[in-house]
Amino acid sequence: MPPETSTKPYLLRALYEWCTDNGYTPYLAVHVDAKTRVPREFVKDGEIVLNISFDATSGLQMGNDWIEFSARFGGISQKVEVQVPNVLAIYARENGQGMAFPVDKQAQADAGPELESVPSSPESDEDDPEPPRPGGNGAAGSNAPRGHLKVVK
């Protein structure tokens, strides 16, 4: 009997759909390793937060193993590739509601000691603001309620 498929990619797709159906902006918090393709200048403490809304991405594909899309970072269009085991959380920017996940221990073990830089190609000079972190207060001085994330194992 083949190994059972993880529920994580299905939960990610369901929460993405819930966010978009309710007019919320879906964000992914991602653990960055050598296999993660993101612009390294936006990685902080080995993590990056990505806006995966329809308006912010092009060609979004949420498969069982990889999440892939193109997005603008500092006005520059770049290809993003994230392994599903590296997703730490998916949540709505507006209220913080969503779900957190533990990082797959095998994904961390596979991470190389060095992170490679991904070259960027200029296409526009539009700047995107840094996204809020899950559980944070959003914009400075914001009194928005904090969301609740649930760890799924």
Structure, described:
- The protein has 153 residues and is α+β, with helices and mostly antiparallel strands.
- The protein has a domain at 25-100: SH3 type barrels (Roll).
- It contains two helices and eight strands; from the N terminus they run H-E-E-E-E-E-E-E-H-E.
- Strands 2-1-6-7 form a four-stranded antiparallel sheet.
- Strand 4 and strand 5 form a beta hairpin.
- The two termini are 22 Å apart.
- 22% of the residues are buried.
Question: What is the fold's blueprint, element by element?
Answer:
Blueprint lengths: L7 H14 L4 E6 L15 E5 L5 E6 L3 E8 L2 E8 L3 E6 L5 E3 L4 H6 L10 E2 L31
Antiparallel strand pairs: 1-2, 1-6, 3-4, 4-5, 5-8, 6-7
Could you give me the name of the CATH homologous superfamily of the domain at 25-100? SspB-like
Average residue-wise pLDDT: 80
Percent of residues in helices: 10-25%
Round the Cα radius of gyration to an integer and report it.
15 Å
State the end-to-end distance. Answer: 22 Å
Q: What's the total count of β strands?
A: 8
Q: Give me the CATH fold name of the domain at 25-100.
A: SH3 type barrels
* pLDDT < 50 stretches: 112-127, 136-144
Tally of helical runs? 2
CATH architecture of the domain at 25-100: Roll
* Fraction in beta strands: 25-35%
In the sheet with the most strands, the strands line up as 2-1-6-7
